[in-house]
Amino acid sequence: MLKSNKPIYQQIVDDFKSRITSGELKPNDAIPSQKELARIYKTSEMTMRKALALLVEENLIIRIRKKGSFIKPSANKQLPLNTATTVPTVPKIYFVHRNVLARLLNDGFYLAMLSGIAEVCAKHNIEFSIYNMGNSLQLPEELDAGYIFFGLFDEEKAEFMSTVAKWKQERRKMITIQFYFPHLEIPSITGDNMAGGYLATQHLLDLGHKRIGIIVSGKSHLEIFSDFSFRLQGYRLALSNHNIPFDPDLVIVKDVGEETEASGYEGFAELMNLAHPPTAVFAASDYKAIGAIRAANDHGLKVPEDISIMGYDGQPISQWTTPKLTTVDQNTFQFGQRAAEIILQGNTDSGSPESPISPQLIIRESTRIKE
């Protein structure tokens, strides 16, 4: 994220300006705390404090006592327009997937991402389509189009990697989401799953829980799927910061091809069968969490009175469950929005991954203070 020779605090200020100009940060948007921003930018709180002070001086943010910091209503008027984002470089953008079921594309995770792409395309009068590459590994003949790739491979990484290398030679305008081939020098958008796992676990720790179970997806404890592996790292880091020993018995790994309520139900049951079951469960997807809530009910436990349960993803349905689900929103709308902007800016020749999209903790009813 921060790559120039300018002082770090000035790079942070410039990054905020860029995000305000592009519309990623909008007037009145709340911004994270100084401590959280220092973690996101991987710098000290002192440096972050200086950057925030400059942003206040330049009338770009406002601090309200006991409420937090916000983008000033007039912030986008304080900065010159970013012409790079207003001059489209492609006539059309494709969201390319590989055999993702139509019902899943209508799932909240995908729908938010697709909406982010569609919004940017509509703003610049660019055509947008979803394209299933299937097993053919073929793209449309349109060499001048932009291509956003997501969820294209599982067991055939080597085959797909050679295909992407061929597309690179054809000078296709490409960007990937949630996977990265550094040697091919294709930009990538990722979510900060480690930060999200940390936020979820820290929330439960703040509520007084010290024995926290986690349900993730993978082949085994030694082969956890990548996104969940990072969420587990965040879980372990939060425990470590509170001097709580890591207990592998509290980690339940479910081998599933897609996230289901059933895997959360089964994982919760396994945790409850422990000699010393947890007082809180971090089900590392919302579907798992919904299944865990059902399992808790079947075990005669009330959520959150007897046990706290939280999810991950920010699925729309999480706001209507009973009880309403505490979760971590991945902000996948920003995945799509930023990917489309990078293509329209003509910045697809840089192989550097973009800064991870920061997740957001959403506190609802399914977690409470441990009594």
Automatic annotation (TrEMBL):
InterPro entries assigned to the protein according to its UniProt record, in alphabetical order: LacI/GalR-like_sensor, Peripla_BP_I, Tscrpt_reg_HTH_GntR, WH-like_DNA-bd_sf, WH_DNA-bd_sf
Keyword list, A-Z: DNA-binding, Repressor, Transcription, Transcription regulation
Gene3D superfamilies: 3.40.50.2300, Winged helix-like DNA-binding domain superfamily/Winged helix DNA-binding domain (1.10.10.10)
Name of the molecule in the record: GntR family transcriptional regulator
Occurrences of domain HTH gntR-type (ranges): 6-74
Stored PANTHER family: HTH-TYPE TRANSCRIPTIONAL REPRESSOR PURR-RELATED (PTHR30146:SF148), LACI-RELATED TRANSCRIPTIONAL REPRESSOR (PTHR30146)
Taxonomic source organism: Cohnella silvisoli
PROSITE patterns: HTH_GNTR (PS50949)
Keyword Nucleus in annotation: no
Keyword Coiled coil set for record: no
